[in-house]
Design a protein that fits this description.
The protein has ten helices and eleven strands. By secondary structure, it is α/β, with parallel strands linked by helices.
């Protein structure tokens, strides 16, 4: 297949490009800078500009571009950046696909933030939408694919906590753990739905041809509490777990509004759609996945 990827320089995008090329796919990358390589195609998501003719020989688009949720403090301005980068980029891609009519598949990034705080409730893709800024962003993000739905199969990649050495969340936790200070965050009872980077890109590649539309949870079937995730990270770097949890009030002071929605709430999710489609995880167990990453 000829696959076009946005966000190809990011953590997931760069790994996906390598994986797809390793499987023999022809991959082109949409870039915002001046094109300098034969596999680069221009687009301007902020200006909602993408020439539909560039998609005429493309079989599928994997849309991963968007500003990092945890990269900066959540000021009013940066929250708008998070929202607009997703809605503008997705609208641009969807409109170009609708005009071209050529790609038969759009795999568009989303996140488990769609569900808000699920508490202890086990939830799959049929679960209700949550509340809060991240849930609202995810709803608008997914809704922005609407123009493409009449002309191609659209799947929303609701990605969980990605285990990769260079992933922002895990790299920060691992650095603290190596100092012997790895401790549960807040109550430690909130659930974390996770996936290895290897399985993330394998799942995306699988969905290029699987007959799947709509929401797809890209998480393993083994969510864990924050306390258990912390213990597993400490074990992977051969350090004990610090006995005193990090108080929620301290996290809110350090991280601002992101703490309440990105750290102190949880999602206890299941990958029901992915499993029904026949996907098999390479890294189904947390300890083994972390050992291979860290």
């Amino acid at each position: 297949m000829r696959v076009a990827v946005t966000g190809a320089s990011g953590l997931i995008g760069s790994a996906l490009v390598r994986h797809l090329r390793g499987e023999g796919h022809d991959v082109v990358r949409f870039v915002r800078h001046r094109t300098t390589a034969p596999d680069e195609l221009p687009w301007d998501p902020a200006g909602r500009a993408l020439d539909p003719a560039l998609l005429d020989d493309v079989d599928a688009v994997v849309h991963l571009a968007g500003a990092g949720v945890a990269d900066k403090r959540w000021t009013t301005s940066y929250k708008q950046t998070i929202l607009r980068s997703r809605v503008d980029g997705t609208t641009t891609v969807a409109a170009a696909i609708a005009s071209s009519g050529r790609p038969s598949v759009l795999l568009s990034s989303s996140a488990v933030g769609w569900y808000g705080d699920t508490g202890d409730r086990v939830t799959d893709e049929t679960g209700p939408p949550g509340e809060g800024f991240l849930a609202d962003v995810c709803r608008q993000w997914e809704d922005a694919t609407e123009p493409a739905r009449a002309s191609c199969r659209v799947a929303h990649l609701r990605t969980g906590y990605v285990l990769a050495k260079d992933a922002l969340g895990l790299s920060k936790q691992a650095r603290v753990a190596k100092l012997g200070l790895g401790a549960p965050l807040g109550s430690g009872r909130q659930w974390t739905s996770w996936i290895s980077l290897r399985d993330e890109v394998r799942a995306i590649a699988h969905l290029l041809t699987a007959d799947v539309s709509g929401a797809v949870n890209l998480v393993t079937a083994a969510p864990v509490t924050n306390r258990d995730m912390t213990r597993a990270i400490n074990k992977a770097v051969h350090r004990p777990t610090f006995p005193v949890p990090v108080p929620g009030i301290a996290l809110k002071a350090a991280l601002g509004p992101f703490a309440a929605e990105g750290v102190l709430i949880g999602q206890r999710l299941q990958p029901a759609v992915l499993q029904r489609s026949g996907f098999a995880f390479a890294d189904p167990e947390l300890d083994a996945a972390l050992a291979s990453v860290l």
